[in-house]
Each structure stands twice: as structure tokens, then as C-alpha cells.
Design brief:
The protein has 315 residues and is of the alpha/beta class. The chain has two domains: 34 residues, no CATH class; 270 residues, 3-Layer(aba) Sandwich (Rossmann fold), CATH 3.40.50.970. α3 crosses α6 and α3 packs antiparallel against α12. The radius of gyration is 18 Å and the shape is globular. It binds thiamine diphosphate and magnesium ion. The site of thiamine diphosphate has 20 residues, from α4 and β4.
Length: 315
């Protein structure tokens, strides 16, 4: 294998098919995990470029939340989670991730592709007929890395808790990670699941709330305020951590690592992650208006100038 400055290991992975029986999977995983923070930071820029290219190409999709959660995804797949690239649905003895706010699929797809689950070139098919990369993630297309369909908000935590309990029954000590939108918390099912997790002492789960203060129609506080979310989650029996710098890669990695140390204590763990919707593109920040809108040609051009990479590996 050859290496260069701009994410060589990742580029090598692009040539791989999502290998069911790949003998090098563990080895490749080690290569990913050894990427430096600088390499991972430039990867966040690459992922942001992918997100915009994907939604621009089909004039639809959700760039705002995707851009805001890019550091979270990069931290999770680049440093924090133990996973196997030879993907199986069961995924025994490896950590799992469940995206509950499925509309931010662009960041999920780009991350999975850049870390070697499927070819980066496939990002071109986003939201097209017969693509495995539907607007909201689904399982029946058989896309490696995806274990539940999501997009109908509110369901991901319930599913993930079932998996977490299953892992315990199986004697599998790995962890389950989930991501949820703050607007998504207005769904009642989330609160049933929060209550269940504490009552049943599901302490092998680390949930994260993308606390960007925005949702489809406006600011979360204006649409339906969550009130004192920290206090509410604590009252529901969770260990609650809060990270104010959700778009600082090192801070997100450190917070997720801290969360790991809080598992196994008889309580579920949640991180309130403060992020900025549209982060990285100036005209997309500061409001909810880019929740689900694609940039036009000129806007894409402007965004790419802000998401500068010396050697972009655009698909
Ligand atoms: C059950 C359900 N109701 C409504 C929607 C429509 N919807 C899609 S995204 C969204 C806003 C969610 O807000 P948040 O979770 O904060 O996501 P963000 O805007 O921050 O990306 C809504 C209401 C949906 N997908 N599912
Ligand atoms: Mg939100």
C-alpha cells in the first residue's frame, strides 16, 4: 500500500468492494483508527464537500443537519467505535451505530463510504431510482453499515435499546451508539424509550442529541421548546453529559471517550451535543433555512471555496 498526506488509507479503501469475507478487514480498520487528527480534520472537509455535491446533484436532501453533525460522525468512525468492515447485520462483538434522525443521510453515507463500507463513487447515486442510497436510509437495499431504516422520526432509540439488551443477553460487551435530532425529541416515543432504558438499566448505550436548536420549520424553542433538556434527561434516569463544542473534532472525540467511561454503571448515557446547523458554509449557518434545501450551482461554488482542500478527493 502507498500513503500520502491527504487521507491515503481512505483512498485505498475506495478500491475495495464492501467485502463480506475480506481477510484484510481488521487490518484496514487498524489503518483507519491510526489516522491523525489532522487527517481526520481534512476528512471532515471532504465529507462536507460530499454532502453538498450529493444534495446539489438531485436538488433535494438535507445539508443543514448533515454539515452540523460531520465532526460527530468522523469522531465515531475515525476514533471511537470498534467496528468491522466485513459488515453483517448481527454485528456480534462490535459496536453498532443507529441513526434515528434519518434525514441527515448525506453525512452518514459519505462517512460510511469514506471509511470503506462501500465505494465512494456510489455517492453519485444518492436519491436516485434503484439506488442503495435512498433519501432516508433503508436496510433492504443491503447497504453495508445500515442496520435500520430511519426517517420516520422517534423510532431509533427504541430499536437500539432492543439491540443493546440483545448484546447483553449474548454476552457481547460492545456498545451501541445512537444519534437523534433535538426537534426529533418532540416525538413521544422517544420519551417512552428514555424511560425504558433507565428502568431496565441499559448501560451499554451512548445516545447523542444533535442539539442545534433548529428544526424543519424554525428554531426548536419557537416550535416546541424542550425546556431544560439536561434536567429532563437526568430526571429520566440517564447519565447526562454536555458538549458545547460539537463542531470541534477533538472535543467531540474526547466527549465520546468520556461517555465510554460512564457505561457499565447501571444507567444509560446521553450526550447533549451543541452543534451549528450548516456548519462550514457561512450562508447555511444561523437559521433553519438549510434544513432540507439544496444549493444551486453558484451557491455550491461559493461553498466549495469555503471548504477548501489542497488535494480534494471529490468523487
Ligand atoms: C414522524 C415524523 N414526523 C415528521 C417528520 C418530518 N421531519 C423531517 S425532519 C424534521 C425536523 C426534525 O428536527 P431535528 O430533529 O432537530 O432535525 P434538524 O432540523 O436539526 O436536522 C421533521 C419534522 C418526520 N420525518 N417524521
Ligand atoms: Mg435540530
Amino acid at each position: 500500500m502507498t500513503y500520502n498526506k491527504s487521507g491515503s488509507a481512505i483512498r485505498i479503501l475506495h478500491f475495495r468492494k464492501p467485502a463480506k469475507n475480506c481477510k484484510f478487514a481488521g487490518q484496514i480498520n487498524l489503518i483507519i483508527m491510526s489516522k491523525s487528527i489532522e487527517e481526520l480534520k481534512s476528512l471532515t472537509t471532504q465529507i462536507r464537500r460530499d454532502i453538498l455535491r450529493m444534495v446539489h446533484a438531485v436538488n433535494s436532501g438535507h445539508p443543514g443537519g448533515s454539515l452540523g453533525c460531520t465532526e460527530y460522525f468522523t469522531a465515531l468512525y475515525g476514533k471511537v467505535m470498534n467496528y468491522n468492515l466485513s459488515f453483517t447485520m448481527e454485528g456480534k462483538n462490535e459496536d453498532h451505530f443507529y441513526l434515528s434522525n434519518g434525514h441527515i443521510s448525506p453525512v452518514f453515507y459519505s462517512t460510511l463510504a469514506r471509511f470503506g463500507f462501500f465505494p465512494v463513487d456510489e455517492l453519485k447515486t444518492f436519491r436516485k431510482l434503484d439506488s442503495r442510497l435512498q433519501g432516508h436510509p433503508t436496510t433492504h437495499e443491503g447497504l453495508p453499515g445500515i442496520r435500520i431504516a430511519s426517517g420516520s422520526l422517534g423510532q431509533g432509540l427504541s430499536v437500539a435499546l432492543g439491540v443493546a439488551e440483545g448484546k447483553k443477553l449474548d454476552g457481547d460487551n460492545s456498545l451501541v451508539y445512537t444519534l437523534h435530532g433535538d426537534g426529533e425529541l418532540q416525538e413521544g416515543q422517544v420519551w417512552e424509550a428514555l424511560m425504558y432504558a433507565a428502568a431496565k438499566k441499559v448501560d451499554n448505550i451512548i445516545s447523542t442529541i444533535d442539539y442545534n436548536g433548529r428544526q424543519i420549520d424554525g428554531d426548536t424553542d419557537d416550535v416546541l421548546s424542550l425546556g431544560n433538556l439536561h434536567a429532563k434527561l437526568e430526571a429520566f434516569g440517564w447519565i447526562v453529559l454536555e458538549e458545547k463544542n460539537g463542531n470541534d473534532l477533538e472535543a467531540v472525540i474526547a466527549m465520546l471517550e468520556k461517555a465510554k467511561t460512564e457505561t457499565g454503571k447501571g444507567k444509560p448515557v446521553v450526550i447533549i451535543l451543541h452543534t451549528e446547523m450548516g456548519f462550514g458554509v457561512d450562508y447555511m449557518m444561523g437559521s433553519h433555512s438549510w434544513h432540507g434545501k439544496a444549493p444551486n450551482d453558484e451557491q455550491l461554488d461559493t461553498a466549495f471555496k469555503q471548504l477548501y482542500l489542497e488535494a480534494p478527493a471529490d468523487y
